[in-house]
Amino acid sequence: SKAKRGRATILEFSNDYAKGKDVDYTRFFDRFYRADESHNTDRGGYGIGLSIAESIVEQYHGIASVDWKDGRIIFTCRLLG
After folding, report:
1. Under 8 Å between Cβ of 38 and 30
2. Burial (Cβ within 10 Å: 0-12, 13-18, ≥19) of residue 34
3. Is the dihedral of CA 52, 67, 39, 22 positive or negative?
4. Phi, psi of 42 (to 5 degrees)
5. CB 43 within 8 A of CB 49
6. pLDDT tens-digit profile of 15-70?
7. Could you give the CA distance from residue 56 to residue 10 in angstroms, rounded to a whole number?
8. Phi/psi of residue 49, nearest 5 degrees
9. Residue 17's closest CA among 76, 64, 70, 53?
10. Could you count the other beta carbons within 10 Å of the beta carbon of residue 75?
11. Residue 30: CB partners within 8 Å, gap ≥ 6?
12. pTM score of the predicted model
C-alpha cells in the first residue's frame, strides 16, 4: 500500500509469516542474515536484498522497518519529504 501523511510517503509490503511471533527482527536488515535454518545457500539467495533496500531508503532520507502482526510480516519504508 502507498499512503501520504504530511510530507512523508509510506510504502508497506506484507506477506504471510505464521511462525514470526518470536523472531528477532532487529537483524533483518543485516547483510547476509538468515532468520532460520531453512534459508540456506542450497535454496539460493545471498541474504543481501533487505540490506540493499534499506540503503536505498536511507539515501532518500527515509527509514526502513519490519514488524509482525497477526501472522503477517510487514516491511515499511517511510520516505521523508
Report:
1. no
2. middle
3. positive
4. -65, -25
5. no
6. 998 888 888 888 888 887 766 555 455 555 666 788 899 999 999 899 999 999 99
7. 14
8. -60, -50
9. 70
10. 19
11. 51
12. 0.72
